[in-house]
Structures are given as C-alpha cells and as structure tokens.
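Hi L.,

As promised, Probable transcriptional regulatory protein SAMN05443663_102172:
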Amino acid sequence: MGRAFEFRKGRKMKRWSAMAKTFTRIGKDIVMAVKEGGPNPDANSRLRAVIQNAKAANMPKENVERAIKNASNKDTANYKEILFEGYAPHGIAILIETASDNNNRTVANIRSYFNKCNGTMGTQGSVEFMFDHTCNFRIAKDGIDAEELELELIDFGAEEVFEDEDGILIYAPFGSFGALQKELENRGLEILSSGFERIPQITKELTEAQIADVEKLIEKIEEDDDVMNVYHTMKEE
C-alpha cells in the first residue's frame, strides 16, 4: 500500500471533534460552495460534493436545505479560506486550513496557540511544501475490484485506490478532483463522500512525552471554530 493508505490508517485512530463541530464545518463548506457556484447542486459540482459529505456525516436533510437557503442570502457573510503554517515543539511541521469571516481574529487566535504551546508560527510557504495536496473519493463497494478500478482511473488522475470496511477510497492530486468526480458520476458509481487532504511527505517519530507536547498544540488549534483541518508531520501509529 502507498502513503495515502498509511496516512488514512493513522488518522482513523485520531480523536475527532463532536458532531456539532462537524456540522458547523459542513455548513461553512455549503456557504462557500453556494457563493462560488450557486444553490443548484446539479450545476454546482462543489456543492454536490458537500451535500454528499453532509449525508455521510448524518447531517439532517433539513439542516442542509436551510444552510443552502441561508447561503443564498446576500447578507450572509462569506468565508475566506486561509492557510496557516508553523512548527510545533520538537520540529513537527503544522499546516492549518481555516475558513473565516474575520481574518484578524483568526490570525490572532492561531498565533496565540503557537505561543502558548511553545510552537512557532511560520511564514507563507514555510512548511506547505512538505505536504502533498490530494483529493479523495469514497465510493460504495458494490462488488468493485479496487485494483481493476485503479487501472481504469489512472487516466483521470487516480494514484492510489484501496478498500476498507467503509468502501473504496480513491486518491489523486488536488487538481484532478473535477475530472475524477465527473468520471465517477458518468460511470454511475455512488460517491459516498469526497474531500481534500494534505499528506506529509516525511514523518518524524517522537517519544510519548514529545507526542503529548505536540498534541497539546493540535488540540488547542482544533478547538477553534475557524479551523477546518490540521495536518502535521508527526508519525501516527
């Protein structure tokens, strides 16, 4: 198996935020998708993908419909996606994806977390190059052979395809999202969820005490309402 498989396996053991936080993140994704491409999912591939993710997270249909309606309101604040970079203790690179309607607030909060936990906030581009920006799709198994599917999807950007207990996962470079989404839909394959991840090119093994230091910072960052995802180069078992 490749790096995407190992990355996914490691993150599967990760502590996820409460369901309410997940719904808040999906709500922001809906706002950004609607502002970008309109409220009709048939004509907005990004919104279509977010709705699939909402369904996978068991977000009530009425919540999704209300979020789409609210996002169509001109008075609804838009969210800007901002990437933050830095180092946790023990030389662990940290990459933080945020969606904020107040950049000054988000910058101040992220900086304070690094300062309080003995980390260092970096400049743009200081650690981003250490991660591969990828897209992924999870589809229903339905008797599909993952190896055969991988060969068939190579021309559409697929780099790694593997099966787990929840379906078949397809990984590709960030820029291949649209082509893969279109091909999967054309084939009539059920997309259960999709998204983007940043996979560290190299990871660093730490002692238990060092891991606790890094996790203290990560937990602080993840509690922030503006934070969507946190990636790091610490090795996860």
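The chain has a mean pLDDT of 91.

Thanks again for sending the construct details.

K.
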